[in-house]
Amino acid sequence: MDEATNGGARQDELRDAVKLAGGASALAEHLRLSRGAIYDFIRRGNFAPEHCPEIEKFSGGRVKCEVLNNTVDWAYVRATSTESAAA
Fold first, then answer.
1. What is the mean pLDDT of residues 57-73?
2. CATH architecture of the region 3-86
């Protein structure tokens, strides 16, 4: 699979995630971003890491951080935030 095809599949995955989260308009409003910013994240192939946990919460867990940004080690982030909360 070439990069262009893979990028298209990734963008499709993010579009589906946005739909599950309530759509671009609802997500943009919740995050206080423009709809254009949402589409820019899709075009780039990843959402900014700082938005991912809020999107996961907003979607009721239907959209996972791992889907929104696959460059972050979310398992580590989840484990360390659990440890921090317990301290």
1. 94
2. Orthogonal Bundle (1.10)
DSSP string, 66-87: HHH-TTS-HHHHHHHHHHHHH-
Rounded to whole angstroms, how far apart are CA atoms 81 and 32? 25
Burial class (CB in 10 A: 0-12, 13-18, 19+), 59: buried
Show me where the domains of the chain are located. 3-86
Q: Is residue 6 scored above 80 in pLDDT?
A: no
Residue 3's pLDDT band (cuts 50, 70, 90): very low
Both tokens of residue 87? 């301290």
Compute how many other C-beta atoms are within 10 angstroms of the C-beta atom of residue 24: 20
